[in-house]
Amino acid sequence: MHPNPAFRSDDRVLHAALIEETGFGMVFLTTPDGPRVAHVPLLLTDAGTLRFHLALGNALTRHLDGARALAVVNGPDGYISARWYGEPDQVPTWNYLALEMEGPVRRMDRDGLHALLDAVSTHHEARVTEGMPWTMDKMARNKRERMMDMIVGFELTVEAWRPTVKLSQNKPTEERARVVEGLKGEGKLALAALMEQFGQ
User: Fold this and answer.
1) pTM, whole model, 2 decimals?
2) φ and ψ at 111, to 5 degrees?
3) Model confidence pLDDT, tens digit, residues 93-145
4) Cβ 148 vs Cβ 136: under 8 Å
5) Residue 176: in which H helix or E strand, if any?
6) What is the pairing mode between strands 93-107 and 34-41?
7) What are the boundaries of each domain within the chain?
8) Is the pLDDT of residue 200 over 70?
9) The domain 5-197: what is its CATH number?
């Protein structure tokens, strides 16, 4: 996390939107085998918990239940060239959104895993524009059950939210406008749009 308080945000709506839009993140844990990370689809529940699943053979699977873990979701990011500023004595930097969430993890039961998989696929299938949405009931039951035997569902109760929303909030309005135009010129449209939306 960047230490500048200007880049903090307690906006839980923004946090939820970042998780929902990205849908993917990393879960970190220190294990007896050393530090490990898993790259996973993530689902934020209405209760504010974070759900995900791992392959049975993942290096984290056997250590997560009852452990305290860190989950990270990254949003748009981009290099900010010093040439975009009006003042010559500036340095380059990096703008980004990142959300760290820390808390205890519990292993989900079979019904919870099924509900998680159904919710994740329903959420993302709604974004696919062509054809009918895929659902779990399209699979033969025995095959679906065998595949579910190979994964484990987890739920992280978020006790600490540590967001960084670094969008040049520490710069004057005219400098921010120059940065936005520079990002647009580089094709970093999502980051430019976030700068226009937040941190004014």
Assistant:
1) 0.89
2) -65, -40
3) 999 999 999 999 999 999 999 999 999 998 888 889 888 888 888 888 899 88
4) no
5) helix 173-185
6) unpaired
7) 5-197
8) no
9) 2.30.110.10
